[in-house]
Automatic annotation (TrEMBL):
The gene is patB. InterPro entries: Aminotransferase_I/II_large (IPR004839), C-S_lyase_PatB-like (IPR027619), Class-II_PLP-Dep_Aminotrans (IPR051798), PyrdxlP-dep_Trfase (IPR015424), PyrdxlP-dep_Trfase_major (IPR015421), PyrdxlP-dep_Trfase_small (IPR015422). Transmembrane segments: none annotated. This is Putative 8-amino-7-oxononanoate synthase. It is an enzyme of class 4 (lyase). Belongs to the class-II pyridoxal-phosphate-dependent aminotransferase family. MalY/PatB cystathionine beta-lyase subfamily.
Length: 375
């Protein structure tokens, strides 16, 4: 469990590192950590590869049981096996949800800033996108519930929720989630909740609350998207799942997949089961490391006059207000100094950038040293 030794990924066709190949720019943009995955996952993959036969594979019953046990232990959520639909990626789940709920030209609502596929999925599904800005208050972000409800029309059928939220890092609390459920009930909305970062809780005492578990009576109006990819750093293997308690909604979701969405591959299933069955020691050390990196960021940005940071309650992503550098596109200022971040315009909020601090402290400190002149 070495989270401090930098790893050379330059020869691995890494999207993260290839973006700036040949340039002296540290890539801290896409949500992909520079840490080795748990030994248990690597060992499970090696054992499966040693078998030597790699045919079409169904999700093993043991994986389903591992997901059920993990959800019960960590979220107090009892998932029926029939609710689970396996997917090769969470983004496919967002697009399928848009295709599943409502009809062409209906509306999909979400809150900005938001993970870019949320903004693209409705249009790709012949749905119309509605957005409502989150409210920035001091060093945090909140819902504008009045604006959210005012935006809803008779054609609004689906609310896309990011929980915990990417990029602002909020882990929505019980009161906020209850208000969202109440609004969805009043307007008969389905909520598709992207919970992919739910095991990366950094604030002390937090416990993830899936909507379907918080209010079982509302569960029939939910699609919950989960994946081991972010937490255990196995995104490249491609294994996600949708949890859909309502049989009719689930059947329509599966119908939209037919002939388009590929099956999950056998190594992804293997890695996912090993992740959900891991003893937790690696994960605990990861959270400690991410908290330490978050503290490094807090110390650095506290001394900045021009850059303001939203320190996340969850995720390994920091949301930076850089409008003092450029109110539209401050990213080139960082790239010119050798640090590659994510452009806030892609998330629906110009003037901001997102920084991935899922890396050794040495890498993070080197990046901050490079941009010292921007403070």
């Amino acid at each position: 469990m070495d989270f401090q030794t930098p790893i050379d990924r330059s020869a691995t066709s890494s999207q993260k590192w290839n973006k700036y190949a040949g340039q002296d720019i540290l890539p801290m943009w896409v949500a992909d950590m520079d840490f080795v995955s748990p030994v248990s996952i690597v060992a499970a993959l090696q054992e499966r590869v040693a078998h030597g036969v790699f045919g079409y594979t169904d999700a093993p019953d043991s994986l389903v049981e591992a997901v059920q046990a993990y959800a019960a232990q960590h979220y107090a959520w009892q998932i029926d096996a029939s609710w689970i639909v396996w997917l090769p990626g969470l983004v496919q789940g967002l697009n399928l949800a848009c295709r599943t709920v409502g009809e062409a030209d209906d509306e999909v609502l979400t809150a900005t800033p938001i993970y870019p596929p949320f903004l693209r999925a409705p249009g790709l599904s012949n749905r119309n996108l509605l957005t409502v800005p989150l409210l920035q208050k001091n060093d945090s972000w909140e819902w504008d519930f009045a604006a959210l409800e005012a935006a809803i029309t008779p054609k609004t059928k689906l609310l896309l929720l990011c929980h915990p939220h990417n990029p602002v890092g909020r882990a929505w609390n019980t009161q906020e989630l209850t208000q969202l459920i109440a609004i969805a009930r009043r307007h008969d909305l389905i909520i598709c909740s992207d919970d992919i970062h739910c095991d990366l809780l950094l604030a002390e005492g937090l416990k993830h609350q899936p909507l379907a578990a918080l209010d079982p009576g509302f569960a029939a109006q939910t699609i919950t998207l989960l994946a081991p990819s972010k937490t255990w750093n196995i995104a490249g293997l491609g294994c996600s799942l949708a949890v859909i308690p309502d049989p009719s909604l689930r059947a329509n979701f599966c119908k939209q997949m037919a002939g388009i969405v590929p099956s999950v591959n056998l190594l992804a299933f293997t890695a996912a089961e090993a992740a959900y069955r891991d003893d937790g020691a690696w994960h605990a050390e990861l959270i400690t490391t991410l908290r330490q990196n978050r503290d490094i960021l807090l110390d650095w940005f506290t001394g900045s006059d021009r850059l303001k940071i939203t320190l996340p309650e969850a995720t390994y992503l920091a949301w930076i207000d850089a409008r003092a550098l450029d109110p539209v596109n401050p990213l080139p200022h960082f790239e010119a100094l050798g640090v590659g971040l994510s452009d806030g315009r892609d998330f629906g909020l110009p003037g901001f950038v997102r920084l991935n601090f899922g890396c050794p402290a040495e890498t993070l400190k080197a990046a901050l040293k490079r941009i010292e002149s921007l403070r």
